[in-house]
DNA sequence: CTGTTAGCGCATTCAC
DNA sequence: GTGAATGCGCTAACAG
């Protein structure tokens, strides 16, 4: 490959100084229209493109932000990124995405890489905070915003929904339908928001209605369809059968639904099932799934907006933004049969 | 934010020259273990991280590659990226991902940005080639590989599956089950691989078995669930009803399936349905979907491997790699009832 | 083995 | 308005 064209080359061809070329390219200082045209012509003719590396080196800004998520194969995160990209693209930033698959080692590797590449900011989600993470962020001050979770030890702005309240609401919805024996397929407890908070909302709703919390009716899954299937299998082994299932994610709900369908149980006649997230999957299956809708794209948008504010206005407050959610009633739930 | 620590700072603190610091950091030339230790200690204590921008400026390599896809919300592309990342990560590259949503303008913007940022290579998929694209690539010689499609005008290496043959196979599979009246929900024709090739395979299989190709039995969708639903609706309006449906994507197949389910048609008893891709969705629905399985992660891996070869070995051949596929028989198909 | 020096490509003083 | 010179942080000759 030939050597890249540089500003010097353009300057020589246009018979001006590099400073002038720089000025017309960046509109940073007045240049006579004559020289401007001359430079622009050469630039167009040669297809010259400024070297962003050199520019970043001087300006101390790279125009790229790093995004760390567990797995973009999960529609939830894919949507989140789309929201982020909507905003970053509009502001001429670019995103460096990485899937950590929950591996702490990979997370730390990426954090380091982000630092070396001098990214302007970081967005991350689903990271389980270790001592090393804390060390990193205490030393390296970079604009950062967290999405879908919060940290107590580190004060980054965060955007989430009120997982506790949403779970509470959908549990009460089941209770209002007359259900008493409600089982929950929960996520891992170390996932504060989608695991712990949703479980808490569920339990609290039961308690406030004076229903007992039956330990056998709470089974853990890992948010996959398969784990939902397995969890349902376990729940159904109990003497007492629930008439409703609250799953902490749509995927696990689909797993539970399939278990029912595969074993001759009618949904919702025999058993009502609700999910959480409102992924595309929720309306792709039959019966369609009653669930909590949250707008991931919007979440990404908000997150990116906050980050860009942090970067450009150098604000430095820490706050948590809660986005709205809605309960969407579909065909997987009905009143308890007497 | 304080000024970053530089190599000069480290050199001063360790009382050596910057060259020495550079040498221990890059293991590029022998350094006495005494000095090496001294430098390493300071680096560790201060948390110094080299500036990748400055390094890239010299080495003419950024260690980042650009990935352009239509929409990573599509599991297909999400998996592809995961495959790519598996390889790039292992080789200490990083990827810049962008969703173009099919907008040519965005594609061109990103190509330009990639050039300015001096990325080491580009992978793209689902791009509809315009004159401007061609101009770009003729001027800017950057290692590039295409996935999921091929170009005749530009000779980039590409990795695909044999869409024609796969479609042919699954159509014959339906024919072997005794189906004669088979409808197809196809994709847009400008999508050479997933649209045109799959349609061709279908038609060819019918012709080779001396079945007529019924125009009313070929309806176009856009690969979404909803378009599959609509397409099925249209197909079912015909006087003659098909006993089997071949959909060019799982999503459209699910749409068709839902139309059937919503209108009292039994699948597969009344009508057999097959999809294409074998996404997670294919086993999430009931009945589970007979489909063509292709391994997107593997596709991403192969693609990235080829690109890295291109970059590091500066090879420059153009070839097309076809990955294997398999027909997976599930519950959405059965023999035609007499 | 180690240090000095010259750029990588650009933006930005500072003179004119 | 314009040009010459300085340096962003680093690597790679080049000497020693």
Characterization of this structure:
Two copies of one chain form a homodimer. In chain A, the strands form three sheets. Chain A has a six-stranded parallel sheet with strand order 2-1-3-4-5-11, with helices on both faces. The model of chain A has no long low-confidence stretch (mean pLDDT 94). Helix content of chain A is 46%, strand content 15%. Chain A has 13 helices and twelve strands. In chain A, β8, α11 (250-262) and β9 (272-274) form a beta-alpha-beta unit. Chain A is elongated and about 90 Å long. In chain A, α8 (163-176) runs parallel beside α9. Chain A has three domains: 7-59, lambda repressor-like DNA-binding domains (434 Repressor (Amino-terminal Domain)), CATH 1.10.260; 64-161 and 296-325, 3-Layer(aba) Sandwich (Rossmann fold), CATH 3.40.50; 163-293, Rossmann fold (3-Layer(aba) Sandwich), CATH 3.40.50. At the A-B interface, α4, α5, β2, α6 and α11 of A face α4, α5, β2, α6 and α11 of B.
In short:
The structure is a homodimer of 338-residue chains. The first copy, chain A, is of the alpha/beta class and 338 residues long. Helices cover 46% and strands 15% of the residues of chain A.
